[in-house]
Structure formats: structure tokens, C-alpha cells
Write a structure and sequence with these properties.
The structure is a single chain. The protein is mainly alpha-helical. 39% of the residues lie in helices and 8% in strands. Strand 1 and strand 2 form a beta hairpin. The radius of gyration is 35 Å and the shape is elongated.
């Protein structure tokens, strides 16, 4: 019956058996079931006062194991001190993230005398409003004082050329790629269990160097198209 009983019904069943045995019943049931004597005595209290535990609860209010934060008052403050140098995000918002892993934080906290596991570190981070997030490209660096003026000049010149029917092209350069037998982030369909083998290290091949993919766009033809879409540039390959 043990797998079918919860904590409350198990101790009440043990208490009823102990009461039926009479003198020495608590010790006998504890030895037979492996339950602690204190648990059986709590069951006897439940049988005497059935209102002590509500029908919708197994334990009394506030019962159960205390949280690690309650048992260790300095845990969150020490965790915050470790997070401050590696915290990212808008300080005006509650949502933050860190570049440190749970296991690294767990090792550092253990070094400060805290008994903790990395899943508990994750729970603490959620309480501090941290979440797992990837990097996002947003910083373009410092701007030149005449950056806006330069773009206005280029736009004006391009407009005058287009008005005269002269060609205007735009060159778009992509990320540099290693040439050779190197790993890339893409995937392709292959027979099961036969991945393509590539080099372990991404050292540049001195003979092949690196490739710089780029596209040349004919702006005049793009603007003349009936359905303009930034992702449908007419590319002139060289």
C-alpha cells in the first residue's frame, strides 16, 4: 500500500495500526515500516484532531523543507556580488542576464562557504529576475561628427545620377568565411551516422586564405521594379 499513500495518509495509517496494537504499538509499527516514531506520533495527533490538517493539504501550513534562501540569509547577497561584474541588460528594467554559467556560480558560492547545487543557483537567479538570453547585436560604435552629412551627400549624388539615367550601384559585403575543410553552422541531409568530417581547428589555410562574399546591386533597376522588397535585390554577380 505504501506507493498508493501520500505522506499524510501513510502516517495516519501507521498511527491507526499503532493505536490498535496498544502499548508498544508505536515502536512495533516504526520497526516494521521504517517510519520515524515522531511521524507516527504526528499521525496520532491527526487522528485526535482531524481539523489540524485541511482536506486540501498534506502538511500543515508552513510545513516541509525550508528554502535554501531562508536557511542561508547571505546566499542572495553573495550571489549578487558575483553577478555584478558580469551582468547585462537595462538597469531600469527587472529582466537581467549574466554571462556566467550555473556551475561556475555554484563553485564560487561553495568557495564562500555556501552548501548549494547548481539547480538551486538557477532558482535564485529567477528570484533575482535573471533569465537565459543570447547576445544581440546593437552597438555600432562611436559615430563620426559628419556621419549624417556624408550620407546626405551620397544620397543627393545618387539621386542626381538616377535622374539623369546614370547607373548607381551598391556593394554589400557579408561576413568573411574560411575556405577549406572547416566546420560551419549549417546542416545538410546525409546518410544516418555519416557526418562530414572536417578539421578540428579553424586555422586559416595559408594557400586558400579567406573568402569575402559580396553582392553588387543595381539600384536603378531595383527602384524600377513593380514590387519593391529589400530582400529581393537584383544582384549582379562577378
Amino acid at each position: 500500500m505504501a506507493p498508493l499513500l501520500d505522506e499524510r495518509s501513510r502516517r495516519r495509517w501507521a498511527a491507526s495500526e499503532a493505536r490498535m496494537i496498544g502499548h508498544g504499538g508505536v515502536s512495533a509499527v516504526a520497526e516494521a515500516t521504517g517510519l520515524a516514531r515522531r511521524t507516527i506520533y504526528r499521525g496520532l495527533e491527526d487522528l485526535q484532531d482531524r481539523a489540524s490538517v485541511g482536506n486540501d493539504r498534506i502538511r500543515r501550513q508552513g510545513g516541509g523543507r525550508k528554502s535554501r534562501i531562508t536557511e542561508d540569509p547571505t546566499l542572495l547577497s553573495d550571489l549578487k556580488s558575483l553577478l555584478e561584474p558580469a551582468t547585462r541588460g537595462d538597469p531600469m528594467r527587472r529582466q537581467l542576464w549574466t554571462s556566467l554559467s550555473l556551475r561556475k556560480l555554484c563553485v564560487e558560492l561553495k568557495g564562500k562557504g555556501h552548501e548549494i547545487s547548481y539547480p538551486v543557483v538557477g532558482d535564485c537567479l529567477h528570484k533575482l529576475h535573471y533569465s537565459l538570453q543570447a547576445n544581440r547585436k546593437s552597438h555600432e560604435g562611436s559615430e563620426h561628427m559628419d556621419r549624417n552629412g556624408q550620407f546626405e551627400y551620397i544620397n543627393k549624388k545618387a539621386g542626381s545620377f538616377l535622374t539623369d539615367g546614370q547607373p548607381v550601384i551598391s556593394v554589400d559585403t557579408k561576413k568573411k568565411e574560411l575556405v577549406g575543410n572547416f566546420k560551419n553552422a549549417g546542416r545538410e541531409w546525409r546518410p544516418k551516422g555519416t557526418p562530414e568530417e572536417v578539421n578540428v581547428h579553424d586555422f586559416i589555410d595559408p594557400k586558400l586564405k579567406r573568402a569575402v562574399p559580396y553582392g553588387v546591386y543595381d539600384i536603378n533597376n531595383i527602384l524600377a521594379g513593380s514590387a519593391w522588397n529589400g530582400s529581393r535585390h537584383r544582384r549582379l554577380c562577378r
